[in-house]
Each structure stands twice: as structure tokens, then as C-alpha cells.
Amino acid sequence: MRGLGVVALAAVPTAFLGVLFAWPVVAILRLGVTDGGVAAALAQAQTWDLAAFTLGQAAASTAVAVLAGMPVAFLLARVRLRAAGWVRTFLLVPFVLPTVVVGLAFKALWPGGGVATIVLANAFFNVAVVARTVGGLWAHLDRRAEDAARSLGASPWHAFRTVTLPALAPALASSAAVVFLFCSTSFGVVLILGGGRYRTLETEIYLRTVELLDLPGAAALSLVQLAAVVGALVVGGVARRRRERAAPLRAPVTTARRPAGRERWVVGAAFTVVAGLLAPIVALVLRSLSTRDGWGLDGYRALAGSGDGALSVTGWEAALNSLQTAFDATMLAMIVGVLAAVALVAAGRARGRGARLAGETLDAALMLPLGVSAVTVGFGYLVTLDALPGDLRTSPLLVPLAQALVVVPLVIRMVLPVLRSVDDRLRQAAATLGAAPVRVWWTVDLPLAARSLAAAAAFGYVVAIGEFGATSFLARPAAPTLPVAINELISRPGELNTQTAYAACTLLMLVTAGVAAVIDRLRAPHADVGEF
């Protein structure tokens, strides 16, 4: 019965993934292959130039994020300062900001754009991934081994390099793989800052699919991108399993102390990174208030209209569309994500090797939507979903479905480690007293995971609000979301359009900052240990 229950739980996320991800993607790839030209596109030097630039900027962004995130991880893990809690909350803000907002924020700082700006913008997003993932493990490491090395004459750097860094290696590899995945599939940032001069696989797939209707070329690029994504997921999965087995852990409260000696330099570097993360946000706010005649609120007032005719709705109507579609997407993602997490926990505790292997396969498959082109998925919807009853291509649910596909992996990553940490003896005790499996989950797992579930819902909601890749392709002109409206505004000439776009970005940023604070207050104790 238990095995049948796991299969039943896994059926919903598997069907969700199959219908809303695998089917559209395979349909587009098959359409491109059928039309011919995929082999020719793969043989073109331009394809591999795009792949090289995509991987190169992703690698550079990952390196910057890791270098910037390590001193912040030390601050969060080892330093007892009142400001550390505020730093932890603030770090989440860049990660949940919509890509359009970040693109315009860096454009306000460096109007010319360029490769360096793209790299910094992608790293800006992902410092939190490194700092919170590595810092979460670092806070729980037993520091007595490091202290022993110091007492034997090792310098602080030598003790860190030979004792602490090897223990942190699984978390570092896991976070670096996630950052590389996000950076290699970056869309909004490259679209805004690349200025047509610099293109990644993601933006080129968009160009070939939407503007050139070159399906073979888009299919070839999707295959290259998928290969890179699978590689990053494999590395991340291996590192994640190593991290779960890593290190004798201690309560985090015993590891933090006031900085002394050279540790103050590391703390200074951490606050320098935080100040650097604050700079684009401040630039965005100032740009939204700057007009030709000085400071003013022209852009905010213009949200009540449609700019200089750039939109078919007002800015506030676009904002309401964003809130509604994000709510629908979050509800759907929570149902699918929680069912998937429960199934993965049950599969991991199963005695059979086949069940565990099936769980690991499902876990990896559910992460794939984070790395496959949103344009490929969106165009696949238009090709395939007419075969379903009701023709979802014209349904207002199309955008929420696409957004839920992006949110589900994030929900799983937040909920799964908490469910895995629940002591199985509590479940066994409840079952011994006669509770059915559903009642066991309701009375044991749910209360213990409630805070993480609330945090996952809030996190998914804010990510859905800012989703731009698939939404830019699927949103109807009469019902755009706010990120789509912002892109429309900045793509049209006119000072009022630009001011309105920056004002809308500032409002989106304030909403995401508020939700980020709520998420951090809701997070479960020790939630940073495990998976980001």
C-alpha cells in the first residue's frame, strides 16, 4: 500500500511535468527536426559562438557571485552582529527581483551596457544563493577542528584552506551549479543590457522563434542549451547529496562570535558586497524620480495611463493582472510542489533501490524547467495545447500555467529539506496509534513544515509576479503583466514611457522587498542547511 501511495503522489507532478513541459518541448524540437536544418544549424560557427558566449558569461558571473558571496557567508555563519539578520533579509531581495527590474537598474548605472554589466547583473541576482547556501552549512560546522589547527600553529588562511574549505566544498559546488544554471538561461537581463550586440542562447532562441520563425535553428540552440542544463543539474545533484552527508553539524548558535583580528577585514568585505548590491537599487529609485525638469513623480502619475500609447491598458491594470496571475500560478505550484516533495521524501525512505532511483530521477526532471528556454516552452504551448479539451491557448490560465512551471522547482527546493528533516519515529508512533497515512501527514508533517510552506508560497508568489521569459511570449496584448508592460514601455521612444517604466520597476522592487522580508521571518530554523 505504501508503494502504491508513493506512485499515486508522484502521478500528479509527473503528469504536470509531462503535459506542461515535456510535451511542448519535444513538440518544438520534433518540429524543428522534421523541417530539417538542425544539423546545418549545429554546424554553423555562429551557433557555437553563441554557446561559448553563453557559457563564458555564465562562468564569469558564477565566479563573481562565489567570490562576493563567501565573505557574506562568513558574516552570516560566524559573526555575532545585530546587523547580520538584516543582511540575511536584504540578500533575498536581489534574488527575487524581476529580471526586467534588475536590467533597468543596471542600465541606470551603466547606460552603455556591455559584457561586464551583464556579468555583474547576473552575479547581483545570485550572491544570495552562495551566501545563504554556504553560510547555512558553515554555521553548523564544528569549529573545534579549525581551532585545533590554529593551536598547532596554522595561520587563519591555512586553517581555512585545509580544514573549513573542504567541509564547505559540497555546498560551494551545489550553489555554483545553481548559479551557473540561472546565469546560462538569463533572458531579461541580456535582452535589456545586451542591446542587440550581445546575445545568449536564450535570447537567440527568442529571436529565431518569434521574429525569424527559424524553428530548425531554434531547435538546434535548444538542444545545445538543454545539454548544458542537464550537465549543471547533474553537478548540482551530486553536490547536494554530498552536502546532505557532509560534516558533523552543531547548533548554529555555538559557532558565531564577535570578529577579531583579520576577521574584521572579512566582515568589511562582506559589508562592501552588501553596499555594492544596494547601488543598483538606489540608482533605480533615483532614476524613477529624475525628470528633464529635475525631481518629480511624473512616472508614477503616468501609471494611471498607458504611457505615450505604448500600452493597451493602464499601468495599474497591468499590475492587477500580475497579482492575479501570480496568485493562480502560486496555488497551482504549491499543490504540485508539495505533492512532489512528499513523494520524494517517501521514495528516499523506501527500502528498495528502484524506488530511490525513481525518486532521484523525478527530482532531477522537476528541475529541468528552470534551465530550458521559456520561449521554447511558450511556443510549444501554442503548438500543442489546442489538442487538450477547451484549447488552453486562448485560456486566461495559460500564463499562470507557464509561471507555475517555473515556480514548482523552487517550491520543492524549499519544502523538501524540511520534510526530510522530520523524525520518522514521529510518523511511526502516529501510525502505531492507528492513524492513516493522510492523518499522519496532517498531524505530524504539516505542523512542522507549516512555516516553510508559507515561506515557499510567498517566495513562489513573488517569483511569479516577476516572471518575464514565458510571460512575454504568452501574455495577451489586452492583459499584459507588469514586467511585460515595462518591456513594452522601454522599447518605445518617449521620455514619459521611460519614466513610467522606471516607476513601475520601483513599485515591483518595493513589493518584492516586502515579500522577501516576510519570507525570511517565516523560514524554518536551520532552513539554510540542505537546499536553497
Brief overview:
Keywords: Cell inner membrane, Cell membrane, Membrane, Transmembrane, Transmembrane helix, Transport. The protein is built from 22 helices and 2 strands.
In angstroms, what is the radius of gyration?
A: 23 Å
Give average pLDDT, whole number: 79
**Apparent shape:** globular
Spatial order of the strands in the main sheet?
A: 1-2
Name the structural class: mainly alpha
Number of H- or I-type helical stretches? 22
Percent strand equals: under 5%
**Are there runs of 5+ residues with pLDDT below 50, and where?**
246-253, 526-532
> In this structure, how is the largest beta sheet organized?
2 strands, antiparallel
Number of strands: 2
Distance between the termini: 32 Å
> Could you estimate the helical fraction of the residues in percent?
over 70%
Q: Strand-and-helix sequence, N→C?
A: HHHHHHHHHHHHEEHHHHHHHHHH
Write structural notes for this entry:
A two-stranded antiparallel ribbon has the order 1-2. Strand 1 (about 290) and strand 2 form a beta hairpin. Residues about 245-255 and about 525-530 have low confidence and may be disordered. The protein is globular. With about 525 residues, the chain is mainly α. It has helices spanning about 1-35, 40-45, 45-80, 85-95, 100-110, 115-140, 145-150, 155-185, 190-195, 200-210, 215-245, 265-290, 300, 315-350, 355-365, 375-385, 400-420, 425-430, 435-465, 470-475, 480-490, 495-520; strands at about 290, 295.
